[in-house]
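Incident review: delayed structure delivery

Summary: a single-chain prediction request sat in the queue longer than the usual turnaround. Root cause was a stuck worker, restarted by the on-call engineer. No data loss occurred. The affected request and its eventual output are reproduced below so the record is complete for anyone auditing the incident later.

Affected input:
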Amino acid sequence: MSIYPAIPLITKKDPFMTPFSSRRDFLKQTTAFSAGLAFSSWAGSAFASTSLNQPLFKISLAQWSLHRALKGGKMDNLEFAKVAKEEFGISAVEYVNQFFKDKAKDAKYLAEMNQRASDAGVKNLLIMIDGEGALGDPDPQKRTQAIKNHHQWVKAAKTLGCHSIRVNARSNGSYKEQQKLAADGLRRLTKFATQYDINVLVENHGGLSSNGAWLAGVMKMVNLPNCGTLPDFGNFVINRKTGEEYDRYKGVKELMPYAKAVSAKTHDFDKDGNEINTDYVKMMKIVLDAGYHGYVGIEYEGRKLDEYAGIRASKKLLLKVRDELTPVAEPCPQPVQEECCGRTRRGLFRNRRFRR
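Output delivered after worker restart:
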C-alpha cells in the first residue's frame, strides 16, 4: 500500500490557528478571513493547500451505474467516457470488463478508448474484472488458470492508463482455508501486476469477501504494497439464501486501511436526497478518518430512478456530504497578538494520505 507521509501543518499553540465553522459563515466573512490569513503566509499557505485547493475527495463514475443502458444496446462502451463528462460533469471513470470482454488484447480498440477519454477530458482509473475464474479456487490448476486469465486485463489496464484492476476473492472451504487460497491467488497475480505498475484491488463482493475481518486478514497474508481493497458501501451480504449480512460501517472501517479506491453504492433516496440504506455522512467520515482523499466512485444500482437520474442523485448526495464535512475557516475572534483558541471543525488538519 502506497502511503505518502503526512506533514503536520499547524500546531495547537500556533497563534495564527483559526477556528472553523460552516460554509455559510465562510461566505459571510470572506473578507475578514482573508485579512486574518494575511498575518501569516505560512498559515495561509497551509490552509490553502489542505482545504481550498484540495477537495476532501474526488468523484468518479463506475460503468456499472449504466449497465442497463449498455446491456440494452442504448449505449456503447466507447461512449462511456463522453457520457460521464457531458451528462454528469464527472471527469474520471471506472470500467467494467464485461462491456468490452473480447477487447482486452485489441490494441486498436483500447487505443480508441484512450482517445475517446482524452477527447472528453476524462481520466481512466481502473477496470473491474468479473468472469475470469476464482482466484481462490481450491483446485490448484483452476486457480492458476484464473490468475492467467487476469493477466490480459492487467496489460489492458496499463494500456488505458489505469492505476488498478478490481478483482474478486471467491473461494470455497472453511474460513481459514479460503483466506489461504485467496491470498495465494492474489499474491501471484499481484506479483505479475507489479511488472506493469498496476494495483490489484479486492472488492467486498459476496461470500466471505463481504466479511470485513476476513478480507482484511487476506490483505495481511498477501502483504504486498500494490494489493489492496476497494470497499463498496453496499456489498455486505455474505449469504443471500440465509440473508446473513455484515455490518457495513464496521466492514468499511476494516477495509479502509488497505483501500486504493472506494465505491459509493446507491439504490434509493428519501425526499431529502439521502440514501435510505446507508448513512453517507457516517460512512464518508469513516473513509476520511482513514486518511483516504482519493476518488469515490458512484455505483448506482437502484430501479426507482432511471440510471441517469440515479447517477445525478448520487452525485448530488456526495457533493452535499463533501460540503458538510469540509471545514471552512472564519476569522479569529481574538487579536492576533493573543493566543487563539485553536478550535477546528472535524479535524481539518488531520494527517492526509493521498492514494491514487
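Verification: Residues 140-159 form the longest helix (20 residues).
Action items: add queue-age alerting; document worker restart procedure.
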